[in-house]
């Protein structure tokens, strides 16, 4: 990790040199974008081209931008962590102002945002793209286990721990490998499945498969939300000897005893304990707390930004739009979903700025390349109704294909 730390330090210096950040003064803009992830970067880039220099402000404290879909491949040893990030200053559009700060409060009735450093930014229009937050501490013992590099515990969901997945895999010669999915909405619900299948293939290729048992435990009532893909995944799991159980929530990790405890959601009196040699744990995830703390009118009952699922416009504030993981859109939280949303958001927000009807509709399109091993992938694409919405009509996308793996890679 030393090389990575040195690169992050260098990036920090580059950020300070290569892109102007603001001092302690107030700002105003035509469009304020909260968040520099996939959704925020995309929205800012499109509107800088439309509105011109000085009209768009991006608020994000991060020095680096991670391409998070690569984390699964890092965990499988296919990619290296330094390949997954770039300086934030290299990713954000140059003609936008980047304020390197965090959101302290959104004041939608006053059309302004306050930052942690005390700045106040006024806007005419606001795009909220704050993502979703990881909460490892919500599972008893998990954070402690992750601080011990020899615990056998990892998570592809954080750049701090993704490399450890492959380190643990490389040491695994016998015992139980356990993979989890929590009882909350998460980024890319297919990623835990990918981690399991890739790991199983690695152990198979390493010649240790007969000595390693694989367990997949998901809090969901189904293996995967879309039946046509779930059926194929279950068939593959059966063929490869992966023990799958639904409605099982990870509630405790004891890395000293190498035990993971799971609550049976349907039968809460039953708790399953599995001894592990390797545990890939996905943390519970929640919307940024600043949304609900700013105004109850901003969020739904779960704390996610409430937007119209078709237009992406806020239900209560017509000059606010949302994109990506922080919204209450009833679709899978993936980079592909953001790609499907950005065109609708751009045209609807542009129409709003011009006093036109906001009528274009997002159909919930999302995609998840379900990597099932080194060289195989099921390309899941679907809509709000969990019906396939596939791109490649000349192949059966519910089956494994090398071409889909190459596309993912």
TrEMBL record:
Transmembrane segments: none annotated. GO terms for cellular component: mitochondrion. Its main location: mitochondrion. GO terms for molecular function: FAD binding; glutathione-dependent sulfide quinone oxidoreductase activity; quinone binding; sulfide:quinone oxidoreductase activity. Pfam families: Pyr_redox_2. Its cofactor is FAD. Coiled coil: none annotated. Keywords: FAD, Flavoprotein, Mitochondrion, Oxidoreductase, Quinone, Transit peptide. It is an enzyme of class 1 (oxidoreductase). Residues 30-337 form the FAD/NAD(P)-binding domain. GO terms for biological process: sulfide oxidation, using sulfide:quinone oxidoreductase. InterPro entries: FAD/NAD-bd_sf, FAD/NAD-binding_dom, Sulphide_quinone_reductase. Its EC number is 1.8.5.8. Gene3D superfamilies: FAD/NAD(P)-binding domain. The keyword Ribonucleoprotein does not apply. It is found in: Mitochondrion. It catalyses: a quinone + hydrogen sulfide + glutathione + H(+) = S-sulfanylglutathione + a quinol; ubiquinone-10 + hydrogen sulfide + glutathione + H(+) = S-sulfanylglutathione + ubiquinol-10; ubiquinone-10 + hydrogen sulfide + sulfite + 2 H(+) = ubiquinol-10 + thiosulfate. Catalyzes the oxidation of hydrogen sulfide with the help of a quinone, such as ubiquinone-10, giving rise to thiosulfate and ultimately to sulfane (molecular sulfur) atoms. Requires an additional electron acceptor; can use sulfite, sulfide or cyanide (in vitro). It is believed the in vivo electron acceptor is glutathione. PANTHER family: SULFIDE:QUINONE OXIDOREDUCTASE, SULFIDE:QUINONE OXIDOREDUCTASE, MITOCHONDRIAL. Belongs to the SQRD family. This is Sulfide:quinone oxidoreductase, mitochondrial. It comes from Riptortus pedestris.
